[in-house]
Amino acid sequence: MNEMDTWVDVLRGNALRIPAQRAFTFLHNGEEELESVTFGELDRRARAVAAALVRVATPGERALLLYPQGVDYVVAFFACLYAGVIAVPLYSPQNRRKIAMIGKVARDCGARWALSTRPVIDKYRDSWSHAEAIPAMEWLATDELAGGAADDWQRPAIGGETVAYLQYTSGSTSDPKGVVLSHRPVLAQAREIVEAWGTTEGSVMVSWLPHYHDFGQVFGILQPVFQGFHCVLMSPAAFVYPQDIEATVEESHPLLRPGFSAAFSVDDGAGEQLVVVVERKRYFDDSVGYPQVLERVREEIAVLHGIDVAEILVIKTGTIPKTSSGKIQRAACRDLYLRGELPAIATWRAPAPAPAPSPARKGEGSMSELIRVSIGERVLGSVARVKQIDSREVEMARSLAHYGVSSLDMLELHTDIGDWLGYEIPDEWIWDSKSIGELVDHITNSYDRAAAH
After folding, report:
1. CATH code: domain of residue 425
2. Cβ–Cβ under 8 Å, residues 172 and 377
3. Each residue of 246-295: pLDDT tens digit?
4. Under 8 Å CB-to-CB from 121, ≥6 apart: which residues?
5. Residues 428, 402 share a domain
6. CA 366 vs CA 163, 180, 188, 379: distances in Å
7. pLDDT at 151 over 80
8. Comparing C-alpha atoms, which of 54, 50, 64 is closest to residue 166?
9. Edge-to-edge, what's the strand order for the sheet holding 138-141?
10. pTM of the entire structure?
């Protein structure tokens, strides 16, 4: 085994070489520093959790990581690697949809353990235990273990071919699909990113991508550890998106009043949640179906921004707080929301956790295969949005023409996909591809080449 054969070797090396170097910082609300950890502290906390984990878990068992965004997730992920337990990055079970996806993943991978923080476990364990479609698992509050005896840890018998973690897609457009990732290929991917990005140990990264997202995991968690640089983490709901999210809300239905919406995050004790408030137009058909409006808003935010909304409120005209110069006062709107004083006409709230059956499919392969799955889900979602159809109706084997995609639609798809990728794809890929799957293959291959160079 060479010196850099596993991610355990990488973090251990950083802890010995640059123990005082800041590794991760988490910003609450995208502004206030909530927690920070050095490479030495990250290693110590991961060893402490791993030492406790190996006393109850067997190497090779699967552990779901059910965390809100933050340092606790990073500690738990590396603790699993330190224990030889296969990590399954997911999200905290904050609503019915997430519980459904977690249940499918748990059954698919045969998970025995559910790791999270004490606040998350106390809030959701009862809902989880009464969900018949969710397999029985043991819960561990890793935030209560991180102060344990790190010196009790012993390096597991792992190598480059040992499975490190299972990366699942979000399941936003279909059932979640998993890829088995061992240490060596993920390390190879990290080396390619160094060459493509030109980052150094002195670099600083800011990531708002969810840690359960493949890009968030690789770019926001693994790459900083691989190179030993500082990464600043924040919740997706706290980053930029609020003007971007507000624009999406206002354009989602003609009932909603442009320039009179507010997107902000609230902390429910288990993580930050997105809340959206928007005024209705004064003179609009009063027979409008509010449930359809609210569902449209939720779908547009999920497809375009990849964020689940906790609550959407349509309020009376002229009641959203604004400054004298006409700017939205998001903080004041948030305060009114927390006090229950917003004059809501219609409200949608994320359902309480509930079970969902049906196992997901799992594939075994490389990082490229995982990237293809993620790109595929994005393209399917884009087609569904452009044609205003249910994403579950869109199939890889079908052509764009099958769904009535016009030349104007193709231009919109071209822009949408390019904006998401961060670079423009050739027009002919959309025009000439015989199926959506062929288009996805073109994009995946272009991403692989970009990463390699």
Report:
1. 1.10.1200.10
2. yes
3. 999 999 999 999 999 999 988 776 677 889 999 999 888 777 788 889 98
4. 139, 141
5. yes
6. 12, 8, 11, 20
7. yes
8. 64
9. 138-141, 113-116, 62-65, 86-89, 163-168, 178-182, 362-364
10. 0.65
